Amino acid sequence: QVQLVESGGGLVQAGGSLSLSCAASGSIFRVNAMAWYRQAPGKQRDLVASITSGSRTLYADSVKGRFTISRDNAKNTVYLQMNSLKPEDTAVYYCNADITYYDRSYRTKNYWGQGTQVTVSS
User: 94 to each of 70, 102, 107, how far by Cα in Å?
Assistant: First the structure.
């Protein structure tokens, strides 16, 4: 059983910083690409940032220069450092990962975390 467990988030004033982390656990052979998405009320879930197993990163234009995604492969963990937060960053943030596991053969499946609330007050 593979799962993604997020931590961090909370309430912060505009201009402040928050850090999120997401750890993958279970019968894992390899964690491939990892990413953070966010979903504001009444809106679709959008990609915030992604990182490959080789640490190549991609960011949404709205967060470039403010957010940093990183990972620790030894801990199967991905991080999102969020600086200069704006009220429009308020959303539920979800961790996402492609994980390879062994179940009579090697299989790769996409997993989601449970989500963590980030609220930025003006």
Answer: 15, 25, 23
3 state SS of 60: coil
Q: Which helix (H) or strand (E) holds 32?
A: strand 30-39
CA distance 107 to 39: 28
- Cα distance between residue 48 and residue 61, in whole Å: 9
Stretch 54-77: mean pLDDT: 97
Q: How far apart are CA 2 and CA 76, in angstroms?
A: 12
Q: What is the pLDDT of residues 94-121, one digit of tens each?
A: 999 999 999 899 999 999 999 999 999 9
**Which residues does 26 contact at the CB level (< 8 Å), separation at least 6?**
1, 2, 3, 101
Strand-pairing partners, residue 18, are 82
Structural contact between residues 110 and 4, judged by C-beta atoms closer than 8 angstroms: no
Q: Look at residue 27 and give its three-state secondary structure.
A: coil
Largest CA distance in the chain: 52
